[in-house]
Amino acid sequence: MRGRCHSGFKSPVQSPSVTKSNEESKENLQREISELKLKEAALDMEIEQLGGEGYCIEELEQHISLLHEYNELKDTGQMLLGRLAVLRGVTTKDLYAEFGLDLED
């Protein structure tokens, strides 16, 4: 009785359900590729239209870079305000008022 295995035999040949799911996966991937190509074409048209209106990709990239820098500085400022509030035992809202900052900023 030694060496008996209680699990069932698993054939290396794929069953039709596995093949079907592979075919469905391929169809889904093809559909996703087609959708992405359509989105790419739409974005290319939008870029061309914006270029015709006088917008420039380099200018947009510069604005995005500046926005990233602004957000990093703002996050750092908020972190410092939070630490200062903890040290003083007040809320950050109190510090906003003290330093003349707008809560919406």
UniProtKB/TrEMBL annotation:
It comes from the Eukaryota. GO terms for biological process: double-strand break repair via homologous recombination. Keywords: DNA damage, DNA repair. Residues 1-29 are annotated as: Disordered. GO terms for cellular component: Swi5-Sfr1 complex; Swi5-Swi2 complex. Belongs to the SWI5/SAE3 family. Component of the SWI5-SFR1 complex, a complex required for double-strand break repair via homologous recombination. This is DNA repair protein SWI5 homolog. It comes from Engystomops pustulosus.
